[in-house]
Amino acid sequence: MRRVIGAFLISVSLAPAQTATVKVDPSRVENHVSPRMYAAFAEMMAEDVKWGLTAEMVHDRSFEECPDYLGLPADWRLEPDERNDNVDAIKFAQTTEEAYPKTNKATGAAERSLRVTLAPQDITDTRRGFSQGRISIRAGEQYTGYVWVKVPAQNGYAGNVTVALEEDNTDGETYAAVSFLVTQGDWQKYSFKLLPKKTDRFAKLAFLFDGKGTLYIDQVSLEPADAIDEVRADSAAMIAELRPSFLRWPGGNVAQDYHWQWGIGPRDLRPTWSNKAWSNAPEPDDFGTDEYLAFCARMRIEPSITVNVNGAGATPEEAAAWVEYVNGLATSKYGAMRAANGHPAPYGVKQWELGNEIYGDWVRGHTDAETYAHSDVQYAKAMRAVDPTIKLIAVGEADDWNSTVLKIAGPVIDYLAIHDYTSLTDNAVASNPRARMMGRADEFEANHRHTGELMAKLAPGRNIKLIVNEWNLFYPANVVESMEGAVYASRLMNGFEREGDIVDANCISDLLNGWIGGVIQASRDRVYGTTEYYALRMYSDHLGSERLFAEVASPELPTGVKALDAVVTRSEDGATVFAKMSNADREHALKVSVDLGSFNYAQNVQATILTSTDPMKRNTFNNPDAVKPINRGLHCSGVCMIELPADSVTVITFRKGL
Predict the structure, then answer these.
(1) I need a surface site. Which of 50, 138, 263, 455 has the fewest CB within 10 A?
(2) 24 and 100 share one domain
């Protein structure tokens, strides 16, 4: 270990530093870099959208999941506990005889509610009710909630309902509680606010009853007061730091199962549906079209909507209706529906994607390239009949698929989307699997160039651009979330910028949770950014508009892959130059000389560096700041000398001098 001062950054390495050079010619602009280059992708997958992005704290709030022997669905429990037989004092049943709403519009089946019957012969505990645990609360922070209740005319419940936040123990402390009298009649919504006096990361939300009779409970909700438009404040803050150009939604694979009308209208009337793309997980659909578009507007992110192409009964007419709901006048059929849901003005969404990975048998609607391409033409015709200004993204894959799609659908599409993944299995047989993994970024870059040539050849005059709207590593978390993941991400992003005339944008997979590739990891009450998150943020914060010629000389990793990868860009006003570099050598630091040629820069230079003293260290919920970028000032004159630590990502910012 050694500490370097002056023009060098603090570094930790296991062997003597090696040398490398970056020589830049500011007079040679190699290509332009799209201002949309760094976008994001959120999918209804695991806890990406639900609970990761959304602020709802209650699981199975509509009592749809399988009940236990007491009749309580899995996430709910008997109060005070199950020590003693309840001797008919309180009975639960998951029932279809009453529900809010009555019918699931995704399946046509009857919805369920929780029937609670409190009998007069109460010889057990005076505390009777049910609860849900693992509710994280903070002292002095208000929580807003509601519950829908129906009291029938016959044997109807007479009494109060108490809603409480409590310590999750029998006879535990009550942090906040509110009671209300429920009345006989049809379904009514009872709203409440709770202000807990203590912080408890593992509290419970309890519903308690002091009366007798039967009532039905449905659609429970609890959110922190700092949530905006159903979105968690902490997750939103992390996304805001990334400043993505657009947000791709709702998928991903799930797009081929999704029907947009499930996710509009009053939240509590929407269905819970089975996510066939991801383990048949129940999806509450709290975050639908209007919530997504409100979030994009608030965050100043361009929306990008993926329509279902021929999956699970989807049609071009359904996609066109979605365009009309989003972009149509309030006098149109579906525009009027949007206006009735609270947004009279059209949203004006321009970017629409035609399905996802339809070449794969893991999605509904999968087919061959020719059939898909003809579907693209049909969908484009129907959707542009509603709004001729929209831009369309087609599914891309390998050469044969792409060639067919471009020949048939090239005249109607504006972008081709491809996905760049590499896995542990792909690279395990190499003599140096790690170097092979790093080299995959170069192969993807070469494929982008090749695909660009194919698009120009087979769809001349269309100027179709490439969007790499999914990419990451299929590796364990100790790789993806360590500096290895960040260095790989840097090399791939350098390639995107080098091919900026072809690659218009990219989205790492995923934005939030979903799988270990989610660059923001959000639990019930905590969030952290992975190393890839910080690498992405560094690139987004230092996005130039022109890529300059840069000659890179570097030592090589064992398989011939250069240890140093670098791209140099210049801001639109010409006043700032960014040198983005990664050192993929795990053993050696690199002493790099950066020569900007005729660009006269101020001697005070800023370097932002992402590295770690332990190559396998990663951020966690318990230690969210273990690996984060640091800023260091450098004093450079002429050629700038900097030492890049082993396994690191660095951005140097040069500003024009006087």
Answers:
(1) 138
(2) no
HEC string for 514-568: CCCCCCEEECCCCEEECHHHHHHHHHHHCCCCEEEEEEEECCECCCCCECEEEEE
Contacts of 229 (CB under 8 A, 6+ apart): 291, 294, 295, 298
Residue that is written with structure tokens 């100043």 in the block: 300
Examine residue 101 and say whether the peptide bond preceding it is cis (omega within 30 degrees of 0). yes
What secondary structure, in 3-state letters, does 203-255 show?
EEEEEEECCEEEEEEEEEEEEECCCECCECHHHHHHHHHHCCCEEEECCCHHH
For 510, other C-beta atoms within 10 Å of its C-beta total 26
Give the structural domain span for 605. Answer: 15-31+548-655
Whether the CB-CB separation of 74 and 65 falls below 8 Å is answered with yes
CB 322 within 8 A of CB 305: yes
In whole angstroms, how far apart are CA 577 and each of 60, 550, 569, 572? 51, 12, 6, 10
The three-state secondary structure class of 56 is coil
Confirm whether 68 is domain-assigned.
Answer: no
Instruction: Match 């947009």 to its residue by tokens.
Output: 260
**Are residue 121 and residue 210 in the same domain, yes or no?**
yes
Q: What is the pLDDT of residues 178-229, one digit of tens each?
A: 999 999 999 999 999 999 999 999 999 999 999 999 999 999 999 999 999 8
557 neighbors 584 (Cβ within 8 angstroms): yes
Shared domain check, 206 and 84: yes
Q: Is pTM, for the whole model, over 0.85?
A: yes
* Whether 147 and 19 share a structural domain: no
Spatial separation of the C-alpha atoms in residues 486 and 539, rounded to whole Å: 11
81 shares its domain with 211:
yes
Inside any domain, residue 639: yes
- 27 and 163 in a common domain: no
* Backbone torsions φ then ψ of 617, nearest 5 degrees: -70, 145
Number of domains in the chain: 2
**Are residues 203 and 136 part of one domain?**
yes
pLDDT digits (tens, 9 = 90+) for 489-547: 999 999 999 999 999 999 999 999 999 899 999 999 999 999 999 999 999 999 999 99
